[in-house]
Amino acid sequence: MVKVGIVGGTGYTGVELLRLLAQHPQAQVAVITSRSEAGLRVDEMYPNLRGHYPDLCFSVPDVATLGACDVVFFATPHGVAHALANELLAAGTKVIDLSADFRLQDAEEWGKWYGQPHGAPDLLPEAVYGLPEVNREAIKQARLIAVPGCYPTAAQLGFIPLLEAGLADTSRLIADCKSGVSGAGRGASVGSLFSEAGESMKAYGVKGHRHLPEICQGLRRAAGSEVGLTFVPHLTPMIRGIHATLYATVADRSVDLQALFEQRYASEPFVDVMPAGSHPETRSVRGANVCRIAVHRPQDGDLVVVLSVIDNLVKGASGQAVQNMNILFGLDERLGLAHAAMLP
Amino acid sequence: MVKVGIVGGTGYTGVELLRLLAQHPQAQVAVITSRSEAGLRVDEMYPNLRGHYPDLCFSVPDVATLGACDVVFFATPHGVAHALANELLAAGTKVIDLSADFRLQDAEEWGKWYGQPHGAPDLLPEAVYGLPEVNREAIKQARLIAVPGCYPTAAQLGFIPLLEAGLADTSRLIADCKSGVSGAGRGASVGSLFSEAGESMKAYGVKGHRHLPEICQGLRRAAGSEVGLTFVPHLTPMIRGIHATLYATVADRSVDLQALFEQRYASEPFVDVMPAGSHPETRSVRGANVCRIAVHRPQDGDLVVVLSVIDNLVKGASGQAVQNMNILFGLDERLGLAHAAMLP
Amino acid sequence: MVKVGIVGGTGYTGVELLRLLAQHPQAQVAVITSRSEAGLRVDEMYPNLRGHYPDLCFSVPDVATLGACDVVFFATPHGVAHALANELLAAGTKVIDLSADFRLQDAEEWGKWYGQPHGAPDLLPEAVYGLPEVNREAIKQARLIAVPGCYPTAAQLGFIPLLEAGLADTSRLIADCKSGVSGAGRGASVGSLFSEAGESMKAYGVKGHRHLPEICQGLRRAAGSEVGLTFVPHLTPMIRGIHATLYATVADRSVDLQALFEQRYASEPFVDVMPAGSHPETRSVRGANVCRIAVHRPQDGDLVVVLSVIDNLVKGASGQAVQNMNILFGLDERLGLAHAAMLP
Amino acid sequence: MVKVGIVGGTGYTGVELLRLLAQHPQAQVAVITSRSEAGLRVDEMYPNLRGHYPDLCFSVPDVATLGACDVVFFATPHGVAHALANELLAAGTKVIDLSADFRLQDAEEWGKWYGQPHGAPDLLPEAVYGLPEVNREAIKQARLIAVPGCYPTAAQLGFIPLLEAGLADTSRLIADCKSGVSGAGRGASVGSLFSEAGESMKAYGVKGHRHLPEICQGLRRAAGSEVGLTFVPHLTPMIRGIHATLYATVADRSVDLQALFEQRYASEPFVDVMPAGSHPETRSVRGANVCRIAVHRPQDGDLVVVLSVIDNLVKGASGQAVQNMNILFGLDERLGLAHAAMLP
Q1: Which of A175, B22, B52, D251 has the fewest other C-beta atoms within 10 Å?
Q2: pLDDT tens-digit profile of C92-105?
Q3: Which Pfam family would be a valid example here (chains A, B, C, D) (predicted)?
């Protein structure tokens, strides 16, 4: 039984961790922290959990208590994991960070995008980027795992087969991504109000979004070279889901893209390459730790279109975090994550 | 291992049965029928099920095949179970009917509301109304179970404590109920289009709705007398969920309603009486087989307001059907139904 | 040409005033205030207004400037109009207050519900409750108009024909009301987030809501006696719209309710009594200054059900405010309000 | 006063024509046809129109009656205008076709995409493509106008400034477009159900969509050369709105794109070039005949991103049709179209 701590459990990735871990046969949540809600029972804040955590209350973060856990998840804004990771690792506790703190390997670049100096640059060399489809072996040995962002998960899983095979023109990649509103978190902001985000669609961050350097870092690794990426995120009037529509120039029209994708992910439990001609819907992964992908070559031209969908809170955050935990602790990778998506 | 057949699996209650049974450790779906989709793999129609039923295809309904199952669920329009139930029961197969065919005990009343003669009145004496919170013992012995409708489940569970205790004026009960659009099924109809049902609310069937006699039948049983009920259903722009707002006159202001409700459901695994002052949200039961209830007495007057929420496809249909199956086959009642609701 | 000032124009009732007044041939917005956004062009905040108010900027509220207007609308939280009304009236400016400040005629009751002392009790005797269907003559002479709340508008227009005719049992009225999320305003609050309010329904304020005394005050006036009202508001996943489902006991079954309603509103430009058997949808009034009503007597019982729908931002706020302005200034009551609702 | 006929008025473009023409001071709807609903009053089908067309009923299409109109709008599926246009033109009636019948100038290409032979190829030479921003002079002289499709309007208005200026690499244009569900029409189809299209996003028609040749035809005209376009439409869970995200390679980084766009549309009443750095929202044009555009050059690279939003039922259909009518009859182009969009 893995003893689990969660730092910052009041947001959507926190409650989603609780939902997934409630049905995990080999993990037990021992502590969950929140400064603002300390003392409150988790099911008073999240009534969907009533009956599942009858005694669990939010507590003030405390290194001694957290350090007694086998693993601590950070479901926090950026900066928090920087401050606590070293102490927890020293206590022998594994750290799985759902925030952006250890995703970028270059501390300076991190500082540029997040507007503050990196708080734990000494840990970067050992931080493992927790995309199991790329880094499974490293995850097994890790002490500190950076769970990928939601857009980066959808975009990388869609581009990787083309890049690893050296097929795409890496100088002109495009990721036109659409996200549900829960991606903006549970903080009170006017832009995320029902009456603002409902019945409307818009792009945002076209000038530059924090997930851009993270996606580029992953694509560089896959391509073995620099990449040029245009990333346009959009806010979509739905709660959960990311739909990445990816464009890459693949001049060689003789390659069997369907076979390439199927082979790349043949042994992956959580990547589903759909039949040729498919259009995956985000609802087909709602609540499930799955990325569904379809690859198209419209009008048999040289521009390939990859459609990649995930649930931003599951494969894009908390589910992927649990998947990392399973790998890290030598458990069956599917434990607690085997349920089907909810449709409709 | 319970061998399961499903008749009419292409609708929302069908896919929800498949989703729930996919994670049920003691049940296996052996056959699922659909005349219109015979030959199609279920996960071609419902991609959320990819990986869960790799070999399961819709087949033409056939009594021999269905009769080889331990239990057959009917997820069909009314009339279908009438035609097949007798043969299946004769084959020793249990029948759990999610349609309205055996919900009303009076064949004539059934005919009046459904516009056609009852097709199997001989079976009515043994049909058990599958509301476990009322009929658990009878369910254990049943061959034929009528799973309650969605509105009737929410309304009965909310009213029953008051009626069984003889507290309410039974002549003037009101059920103002709000349903998500999935309650209207997966049939193509203009009224259920996104552009028609979205961003709008309306009442419907104020003159008379088919669930009215079913609710009244259940309330009569609880009250031990005739009841006068006004039932106003509303279509709400959400996919899943029923919110029943129930009004009853309870002249005796000395009774502790909170305690009454808590005691009535103390041992029920799937009814959650929330703390005093609560306002249950339908999302707190999304995807879960739970009914959450709160009871209020506004301004300390004699009108009591009960708020009762369910997921119409789970506790209001397929989840309750699985709960009945568990009881019927002597399994732990929570098997396959223990997961938390999905929020947000 | 009526010279218009708006205090507190950044919220939803403010932008809706601007939308409606942009097409009003006899009104011109001269000044709009907002402390927090002073200096910002209104169409920078509300791009739907681009091209309509090319030079209009938010300014700091200033009595001299506002006092130079013919009329000032308050689209503010409660308390603000209390502070400014006296000075504006002294300057000869009419005041149309969309907030709750002058809706209740009893200052003490106001203080109880709003948690602070009434700030201008001296003005209460002359404040006119701006429901034109009841108070048109008084509105014509008014200096200070309190625009009714959204729930109160829908509920009163639905109940009034029964009460004025002395038909209903006034001791047991029920208003089960469903509101879109814009009713909660544009303030950043967790409960109004898309991911919180979407795909879910809940009741709120069952214990007591600020609109309860306002509705009761209006119903008392119509009935000529005390009334007992149970009011249960619900949050519905749509942006605009209120659906009031009203229940009243009308023992006399011989009365022609349809005729009663049609006659009561025969000369009202903005109340539409729909044909017998109708179920008005909130979308049928989206963006329009209309209240549509249908009256039912289910199962020919003694409980009458009235369905009343409005757009909470139009007939429930800004449209009704403009209607009041038209009456007050002797204009055609329909000016600027004659457009059809937007469907779908 | 322009005497208007509408053929096929029961769909969304039909009701939107009625909404817009109700507030048009120089047009009067004399006849509206529908075979299936003949005899029904239009406001029985569309209660938002109650009070606006008290006497207007759907009638069986009849050339004599339609031929007595000054102009006939076709709001029909493809093929219908083919059959009737010749007779109406012979009667001296102008034809404004909202369907696809006369959008493609090549009858053979039309036949390929629409799966049937073109029904009136003789009329193609005189059919004018009704995009006023390109064809205003031709529209003034036209007898037969083909109103552009919704996607083509948004895409062309966004690309045209770049193409007319010869700045873009025309061989690799991308239009990633997101549409609300009303674009699929009011026909009963499973894919457009609230429970299917809600809370989800998907691409569709990646292999080839009927609007592709129409967009290409318009872009060729603007560029004066062949174009290579990849067009990926997506279904978005909102009722109205199209968001086109357009990608074009513009190697010359010295050009002032903002100025280019502003100059191109300086005198256009219905194209709004937003300030640099803007992200237009579809709700900012809801109900209004406006296309709002922003142009970006992310990371100062050679890939330009244009964001273009319209209401698919207004500037993408019925509003643009009225705009064409105004031009055709020498009226002020803004008549009936000057109202602001509705937000929220």
Answers
A1: D251
A2: 999 999 999 999 99
A3: Semialdhyde_dh
